[in-house]
């Protein structure tokens, strides 16, 4: 069996890669290849998955849906020619007897259908939680917001049509609620969980001891500024203001901040912002550790999982990382930035997606007050933990999807 994986974004590449790695362990291991529709697919090549067809990094970085100007920039950057070349690649793959796994949204799904091959779809972008929860439809303020649910699902009729074709052998939605809704249209949907929650096992780094808190565990926050350049640097400016709000609120308590910085980002802007804000590096500390008053802040680019596990709460301005934090049962306080990803509209949608696990505020100076109220409400914290696990699912989804995929495609 030959299987081509289509994905359209860095986060989608990572999710697809986890499934492909499980397929490599399958007894009937298929011949694998990938075609990243957005970006150059470094996640694939770094792990030995060959790229077929044309790839190119577009100016928008994949966020053309959030800003029409980004779409224009992509067109000027050669998007149309790239798309035509990629369509030719998937058609040639199908003509050679290959099958397709589409990961992301309607774009790879449309490519998969157009190829003429048998295909499966992992829907990472949409969830019924955007429209409803287990109790029913969410209340929306404006008529155009309520219009989003006109078709009865977050997946629109043309998307459901693509998922219900005879060549579509399996659909893997991101949560149980979405799976149940899609089944109403006889779509072959399977609740296998969300691959975002795979690969999050901690490496065993003890930040509390490393920061000198061995005797008394501090209130610990993970800071998630995102991974997009230059947006992450601008988000960091706001995050430092949120940190200052927390320090003012908990001035008599020792605090630990774990800043999980994406490996591809330059640390200099983060360090410069801290220095300008009065943070300093004690000579007794090694590495990227900073102190101010009773607080300690650690910058790390290699311990994302440990940061999530050791944090009590998160201050988040990211996409996937915020969802993973919530899936581990932790609350996330979010606020919008300048974009192009974390706009007010994105933050509001993320709030609907993740429900009570996310506390949305309009300004970072309010974070201290929010955390103080939240930390005193143990029942609410317990509900947040349960909600996060329900919405994001248990680990092991990649293996379950791989096994189901092989069974469906073989038949």
Q: What would you say about this model in short?
A:
This protein has 17 helices and 14 strands.
In terms of topology, how is this protein built?
Blueprint: E1 2-7, H1 10-24, E2 31-36, H2 42-45, H3 68-76, H4 79-95, E3 99-104, H5 106-115, E4 119-123, E5 132-133, E6 136-137, H6 143-146, H7 157-163, E7 168-172, H8 176-182, H9 207-210, E8 219-224, H10 231-249, E9 255-260, H11 268-276, E10 289-292, E11 295-300, H12 304-310, E12 313-316, H13 320-327, E13 332-334, H14 344-354, E14 358-360, H15 367-375, H16 378-392, H17 397-410
Parallel strand pairs: 1-2, 1-3, 3-4, 4-7, 8-9, 8-12, 9-11, 12-13, 13-14
Antiparallel strand pairs: 5-6, 10-11
Helix pairs in contact: 1-17, 4-5, 10-11, 10-15, 13-16
Distance between the termini: 12 Å
For the record, what is the CATH homologous superfamily label of the largest domain? Answer: Glycogen Phosphorylase B
What is the fold-level CATH name, i.e. the topology of the largest domain?
Rossmann fold
Strand order of the largest sheet: 10-11-9-8-12-13-14
CATH architecture of the largest domain: 3-Layer(aba) Sandwich
């Amino acid at each position: 069996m030959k299987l081509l994986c289509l994905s359209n974004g860095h986060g989608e590449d990572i999710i697809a890669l986890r499934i492909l790695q499980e397929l490599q362990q399958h007894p009937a291991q298929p011949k694998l290849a990938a075609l990243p529709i957005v970006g150059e697919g470094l996640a694939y090549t770094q792990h030995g998955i060959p790229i077929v067809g044309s790839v190119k990094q577009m100016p928008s970085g994949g966020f053309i849906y959030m800003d029409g100007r980004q779409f224009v920039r992509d067109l000027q950057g050669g998007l149309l020619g790239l798309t035509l070349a990629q369509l030719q690649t998937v058609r040639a793959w199908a003509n050679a007897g290959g099958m397709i796994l589409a990961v992301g949204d309607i774009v790879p799904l449309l490519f998969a259908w157009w190829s003429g091959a048998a295909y499966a779809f992992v829907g990472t972008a949409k969830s019924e939680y955007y429209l409803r929860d287990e109790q029913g439809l969410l209340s929306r303020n404006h008529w155009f917001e309520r219009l989003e649910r006109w078709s009865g699902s977050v997946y629109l009729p043309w998307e459901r049509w693509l998922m219900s074709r005879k060549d579509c052998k399996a659909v893997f939605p991101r949560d149980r609620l979405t799976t149940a809704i899609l089944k109403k249209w006889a779509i072959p949907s399977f609740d296998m969980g969300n691959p975002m929650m795979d690969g999050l096992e901690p490496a065993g780094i003890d930040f509390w001891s490393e920061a000198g808190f061995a005797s008394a565990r501090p209130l610990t926050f993970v800071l998630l500024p995102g991974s997009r350049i230059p947006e992450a640097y601008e988000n960091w400016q706001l995050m430092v203001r949120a940190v200052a709000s927390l320090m003012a609120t908990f001035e008599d308590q020792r605090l630990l901040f774990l800043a999980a910085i994406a490996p591809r980002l330059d640390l200099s802007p983060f360090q410069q912002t801290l220095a300008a804000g009065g943070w300093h590096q004690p000579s007794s500390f090694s590495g990227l550790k900073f102190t101010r008053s009773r607080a300690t802040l650690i910058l790390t680019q290699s311990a994302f999982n440990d940061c999530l596990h050791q944090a009590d709460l998160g201050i988040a301005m990211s996409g996937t990382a915020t969802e993973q934090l919530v899936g581990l049962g932790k609350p996330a306080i979010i606020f919008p930035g300048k974009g192009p990803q974390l706009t007010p509209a994105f933050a509001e949608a993320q709030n609907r997606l993740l429900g009570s696990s996310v506390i949305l505020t309009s300004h970072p100076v309010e974070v201290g007050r929010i955390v103080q109220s939240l930390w005193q409400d143990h029942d609410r914290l317990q509900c947040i933990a349960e909600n996060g696990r329900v919405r994001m699912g248990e680990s092991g989804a990649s293996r379950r999807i791989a096994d189901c995929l092989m069974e469906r495609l073989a038949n």
